[in-house]
## 1
Amino acid sequence: MLFSNTMKNRSRIHALRNAAFVAAAAALAVGFSGCNKKDAAASDEILIGHYGSLTGATATFGQSAQKGIEMAVDAINVSGGVLGKKLKVIVEDDQGKPEEAQTVVTKLINKDRVVALLGEIASSNSLAAAPVAQSSRIPMISPGSTNPKVTSVGDYIFRVCFIDPFQGQVMAKFAANTLKVKKVAILRDIKSDYSVGLANFFVEGFKGLGGEILSDESYSQGDKDFTAQLTALKGKNPEAIFVPGYYTEVGLIARQARKLGITVPLLGGDGWDSSKLWEIGGAALNGCFYSNHYSVDDPSPILQKFVADYKARYGKTSDSIPDAMAALGYDATLVLADAMKRAQSSKPDSIRMALAQTKGFMGVTGNTTLDENRNAVKPAVVLEVIVDEKGNGRNKFKESVSP
Ligand code: PHE
């Protein structure tokens, strides 16, 4: 894996852009003057970039996506690669921070000269980096960012997952129709575009089904103590609490809620999906539910083969069950390779045009068809969290909801 030195300010970014311009001009000059060995060697590979949180509070998002991407790249390369070339992924750690995401994507484009980007998972990070990809005309595929604004950045930005207006509706229906609760409280992360958006879509959906929102509390990513908000919520006696956050905070929230005597189910979205959730939240998470992109309980043969291959490859680590990011990272890579094959080209503009025409691509997370807004339309699943005393957890499939 390659890690970049972090560039701390925009002037460095501009310097890089200028340097890249000079480099491009030089390459052009070499091109005119005849053939050059370095070009010939480089052209055996197609370079793609992956930027994600390999460290930090959402580290499992980037790590899992990278595992899925590695598996897909190896599968593609073993069967001959793309257009007779091998795919090569350059990985950059953005530490789960939006500014870093922008910096590393600038580096991947201007220095490494990748033809396409995979990333990010967390919507705020995708939103920070997407304008760089868009203005540089490099196609970007987010495996898992579900906030609707991400692909609205422009026509070079795609995703292989559903979006939050749908995900919010799925959990609103689950609360109202399956759990049959009428009064819900919200606890949202106001630092996260994902959390704020998903909370709003849930509220809209739940009210539409006749439900009532008793209170709407907030926290900021990185917070450790949620006692004040939970105490306020408890006073309203909700029948469930919707917590559309990321696993680190959600795990702590679950523990602190139970400690305060809150016994009602906590509900959430895909941001819960991490084996770390079980470790952090422990048995406090029993009886809680969240929506997700896929379930390992799904008997689909392509999915079961992926689960088995993943375990064979990464099984020695604690997280041998592939989470949704691993599956989406895998599918995003296959969708990208498929677009290059259909385009018969690895030029960014040609890849973009072929990506926009992705229809019925069968992957681990189901069928990917990209709509006119470059979003995938896919079913969601609702999972129940089950954790034993030792913090060993699993997700039990409850239901699947089609768009
Ligand atoms: N959907 C989340 C976001 O947009 C990220 C995520 C995707 C988390 C898939 C877990 C699984 O921020």
## 2
Amino acid sequence: MISEKIQNILNEQINKEFYSAYLYLAMSAHFDEMGLKGFADWTKIQAREEVDHGMILFDYIIERQGRVSLKQIEMPEENFGNPLEVFEKIYSHEKYVTDSINCVANMTDEECDLATRYFINWYISEQVEEEANVDDIIKKLKIFGSEKAALYHLDKELGNREYKPHSYNS
Ligand code: OFO
């Protein structure tokens, strides 16, 4: 069984993951309006991954005989700017999520909860991957994001992303 402190922080993390899904969906709609279908697909797939992140936490709380408590999801903004501005917002959001996951890890140490510490390691690795992927796209956008032909090709490249359901052990 998990402690109340761990239960609370995991429930807060569920909310942050579902907010992330909302944010990426809003960004996807924004890209769609701009006619950037590949960017729209990439962010829509990211939204689905964020739902997976939330559901893994949801299932874990239940598995550990805790109580899931779903909080209100904040409304995301709707005006994100050009592709580089959107990805810079994504990067700073993911850094915020990384900090939040690190706080969960710290709390598992404080509570001597080794099972949750082991569980949260998956999220720590996932954040490393997410920040790196976004940084890679930001670098490309900084180099040639203002050239229409290059943006067209990047849009095609991002459109190749495929959704792979995330689960705790994969
Ligand atoms: Fe759930 O990793 Fe992004 O926010």
## 3
Amino acid sequence: MKYKIENILEDLESQGWSVQNNFFSTELTQSLKQTLSTIRQQGLLKQAGIGRNNNFHIEQSIRSDEISWFDESNLTESQKIFLEHAEELKQEINKRFYMGLNEFEVHFALYSENSFYKRHLDQHKNQDTRVITFICYLNENWHKEDGGELKLYLNNGEIITVLPDAGTVVCFLSAEFEHEVLPAKRERASLTGWFRKRE
Ligand code: OGA
Ligand code: MN
């Protein structure tokens, strides 16, 4: 894991974003997917919205995924392991860049067939508490024909395309890069998290 984290740090330093295939083991992504199935069976997946607090609303023309935030008081072993890795990454980022990240928030996301998330920035208006976005995919054998790619819009006009294949991790500066999830042609499962500074 150490050398993989080092790869992310180097990419963040040189370009502000990183894509790492096979960051997490199949064993871990499979058991996270199992946790997601349980959460779904319990009816804990909710239609995702946009905006925050008073501004929060469901806007299915912008995003049509369903999400479930981690419940700190009720975590499976795989969720705990995932959080430990995120914590390690957070510490290494702080050591290297003095970013002062002190929180990590994360939710499962499930895109049913034809679901998408239009081009957006992860920071809420007038708030810079979300510093780094961290996404992990849980889908075995994802192919180009399955759609659902993440498009990351770089500031030089270049566009990075990522297949949401199990174990792949994407990490980027939340304030810098607009991104988009193209319509998925099969169910698409992921975890999206943010390293934050306290408000
Ligand atoms: C998000 C998001 C991208 C993805 O949840 O904010 O942009 O590839 N997710 O799942
Ligand atoms: Mn996003």
